[in-house]
């Protein structure tokens, strides 16, 4: 592939998911520039040819398209709007894609600020966790300008296989919060189903195999359920980040005058996980509270 015809990509945030996502971009032949607060987490990408930079601003000066997948809304605000942020360094005509799960209102504000500098910013959070990132099978929910979306679509295809533009800036974040709302209550149901099976004397693994091909089937039951039974709570998506997402969804719902009682219960249980020192376990480790009868 002739890399001279391809846009230069900047990638900020090379954690559990970001590292795999960035690697797919390199393998597709795109020149890649990287930044992460912990430089050691970019080592494998640098070995593959990525170029390291010392700040988001410095990286942005070298990139046509900048991708971010970081931690919290406050991190997004700093990385985009800070003195050493993306908008301080990005050139007119460039496009930024924030794939962090963040605040819909913040996404709209960043897009508006960027537009004044002739920079397009899309909010494009993802679903699929570490496995989806590794296999380039993420679902990508996008909000923002349609022309910018069309330009970056081939790059998004390097990372995902279900990609949709859902509306103006902030729409991708709203869609991702819908995703997290569904997962939060579903995981509670999976935990309760497994515990019920075990208490009734059934082989929970056999039960999951049967019901997983029926109406109860889905990723949370069929993927996370067996991990719960085995005691494998390694994080594909950490509980502390899931609590952040639940909080964003509750805040956004309250702004719209919407009550979500199932999500409120999930927030209580997941906060209990954090209080018990399980913040960096996978979100499916909620099962441990059920197993210990601590819910």
From TrEMBL:
- Span of domain 6-phosphogluconate dehydrogenase NADP-binding: 8-167
- Residue stretches making up the 3-hydroxyisobutyrate dehydrogenase-like NAD-binding domain: 170-290
**Keywords assigned by UniProt?**
NAD, Oxidoreductase
Q: Where is the active site?
A: 176
Keyword NAD part of the UniProt annotation:
yes
> A Gene Ontology MF term for this entry?
NAD binding
Q: What is this protein called?
A: NAD(P)-dependent oxidoreductase
Q: Which organism is it from?
A: Polynucleobacter sp. UK-FUSCHL-C3
């Amino acid at each position: 592939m002739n890399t001279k015809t391809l846009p230069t990509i900047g990638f900020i945030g090379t954690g559990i998911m970001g590292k795999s996502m960035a690697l797919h971009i390199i393998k597709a032949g795109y020149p890649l520039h990287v930044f992460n607060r912990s430089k050691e987490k970019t080592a494998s990408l640098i070995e593959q040819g990525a170029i390291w930079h010392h700040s988001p601003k410095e990286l942005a000066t070298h990139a046509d398209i900048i991708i971010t997948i970081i931690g919290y809304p406050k991190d997004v605000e700093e990385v985009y709007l800070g003195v050493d942020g993306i908008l301080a360094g990005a050139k007119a005509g460039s496009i930024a894609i924030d794939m962090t799960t963040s605040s819909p209102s913040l996404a709209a504000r960043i897009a508006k600020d960027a537009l004044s500098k002739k920079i397009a910013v899309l909010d494009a959070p993802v679903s699929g966790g570490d496995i989806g990132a590794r296999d380039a099978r993420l679902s990508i929910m996008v909000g923002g300008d349609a022309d910018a979306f069309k330009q970056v679509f081939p790059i998004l295809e390097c990372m995902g296989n279900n990609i949709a533009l859902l509306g103006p800036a902030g729409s991708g974040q709203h869609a991702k919060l819908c995703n997290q709302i569904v997962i939060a209550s579903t995981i509670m149901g999976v935990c309760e189903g497994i515990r019920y099976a075990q208490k009734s004397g059934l082989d929970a693994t056999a039960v999951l195999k049967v019901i997983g091909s029926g109406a109860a089937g889905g990723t949370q039951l069929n993927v996370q359920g067996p991990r719960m039974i085995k005691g494998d709570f390694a994080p594909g998506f950490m509980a502390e980040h899931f609590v952040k997402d639940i909080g964003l969804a509750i805040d956004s719902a309250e702004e719209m005058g919407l009550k979500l009682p199932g999500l409120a219960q999930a927030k209580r249980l997941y906060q209990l996980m954090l209080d018990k020192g399980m913040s960096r376990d996978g979100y499916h480790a909620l099962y441990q509270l059920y197993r210990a009868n601590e819910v």
